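Forwarding these from the shared drive since the link keeps breaking.
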Amino acid sequence: MPETIIYHIDVNAAFLSWQACYDISINENAQDIRTIPAVIGGSQEERHGIVLAKSTPAKAYHIQTGEPLVSARKKCPHLAIIPPNFPLYVEKSDAFIELLKMHSPIVEQYSIDEAFCDMTGMEQLHGDPVEYAHTLRKEIKSKLGFTVNIGVSNNKLLAKMASDFTKPDRVHTLFPDEVKTKLWPLPVENLFYVGRSSSKKLHFLGIKTIGDLAQSDPNMIRAHLKKHGEVIWNYANGIDTDILKEQPDPNKGYGNSVTTHFDITDSDTALKIILSLCETVGARIRADHVYISVVSITLVDFEFHHISKQMTLLSSTDVTEKIYEAAATLFKQAWNEIPLRLLGVSTSHASAERYEQYNLFDMQKYEKLSKLNNAIDSIRNRYGEDSVMRACFIDSEAEHMGGGLQKAKRERKK
């Protein structure tokens, strides 16, 4: 049986690289934003003021992905800030995945700019897997115009960790016999699946490096971090049994959120935005032919305090109006009238099985609404999202459906 070989391919500064490729494709004399201090960032005026991607020169100023644009500008006053172009990112991502499918029989897209490729048994076709990773890296750069890092190993975890080594435009290996020398010296927070909370607990236990975690007593780690501790202890030792999936797992939940360009100070405005989020969430649920039974909301005020509440429905549903009724109820329970800057609606416990616990009136009401929702979905799928909207969104500052990357993905599928 051939040795398992997995590639993890990660686009370098994806959003910024894809914008640079597009700029050069329409004007060969355009400045390559990858060569100057530049970031992709939302409009600060519209309250989307964070760094989404950064160039290598920007990194030299210690600018971090996710930090506010205000902070990034202080570090680099001449920083170029380019607004995001989500439809472009979806287009470039699709081209990236299609190219990978020409080289591997199983490609699992991990995110918009990352994918795993199963290269097991491909040596007879492609030769040495590490050398071929360099060939693939160069082909992506030549055909698509952007660079990637490729991690090569025997499982997904180690391949992903390897691809995150020195960037950009590199190939790295992290085979099991290299774990002690390449992985163990790294800070424990660099390990996949170790977040801020977990790293604090590990530091409290005297665990500073991945090697410290790997050589610790697994029972002690499990006692402090439960099942999660067992997972990261295995990861620290390079153990991962996850296999590649060409088709993604079904969604277990659906959610959407929006950051507004103004402070929300009244419930009418907040509820209208919540309705717009429910429109998008409901459409996605129906598109996957599932029903949800838990609704949650998230509120973030202008001082970045988070509030979350959820409820379990008596009956599973795919009806936008029913999701909104639950979200509106939760909002009224949760909001303390402090001005808000972010609203989110999410749902969970998705299932293809539907269960009912309505009274007769509700059953008739929601059956009619379900038919109406599906009819509207059909019209929007054919003529575009903006072909049908609720009257309350006419001349409203709130979009009638969610935007950003999710909207770009939906439009791309049509």
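-- next protein --
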Amino acid sequence: MAEKNQEILRVEELKKYFDTPKGKLHAVDDVNFTLNRGETLGIVGESGCGKSTMGRAILRLHEPTAGKVFFEGEDILSYNKAKMKKLRQEMQIIFQDPYSSLNPRMTVKETILEPMLIHGIFKKNQTEEINARVRQIMDMVGLSQRLINAYPHELDGGRRQRIGIARALALNPKFIVCDEPVSALDVSIQAQVLNLMQDLQEELGLTYLFITHDLSVVKHFSNDIAVMYLGQMVEKAPAAEIFAHPLHPYTEALLSAIPVPDPDVKMERIILQGELTSPVNPGKGCRFAKRCIYATEKCLAADVPLDEVTPGHFVACARLAEIRS
């Protein structure tokens, strides 16, 4: 197994635009980051900020408009269909909804087996090998063997999501996009699934891109956290650093919304005012400016790059030096 601290994924100037009657919707715009093997990068932000679209663009489930995605040093956006099919064994996804992402007509066994048949790992007549591998994967994700012939509608949300995780693991991937994998589950079940995912990461050396809007989850699950706003990254830092020293005004507002389970602690909630910038033909400048109390004309004059302000801490704010001085 390759060592940690070795780059496995690098994303450069990634863009994904969608055509609308009014113009180009900038779902993902100039996103840059690197991710090391065996680590987790948490992606947070409001609904509609482009988190899921970015994850799918990295996997080419959405074809990127522009940019580069390097996986183990190779730009996969240049791959043809045959090379991309082979790459699917290395890069997988766990979807948000553990029910709609499963085929209701397929049993647990058939769901886990399907990717292995598609990629030619087994043939349908290899009954003993198939049963052994399916049962092995079910054990890995904590699914009882008695459920091997069950259908999704017969199972609760936690078990259905374990099937989704098992399906993602079937091809022995190195990198998994986790697209809000616990947001549809009860809180008690969330903890079980997150613990399972952490155990699997340690056991198998997996690398995660963990997309969520739950900051309390991402704090304990990620090595680094990146904050997105209207298609752009506005801050990225180690998890502990971003919670202890948030620098972007939007990150501060997000963190202030985390509930504190202590009635004696006074919460200072930052309520954002102002109009949302349209993601359709947004123009230049900071997209958060209309809701930012520190914004001036300087913020709208030009696009704001994501700069490294302290080692490992990146922020996109035109007035950062002034407001933090």
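The longest helix spans residues 187-204. The radius of gyration is 21 Å.

- D.
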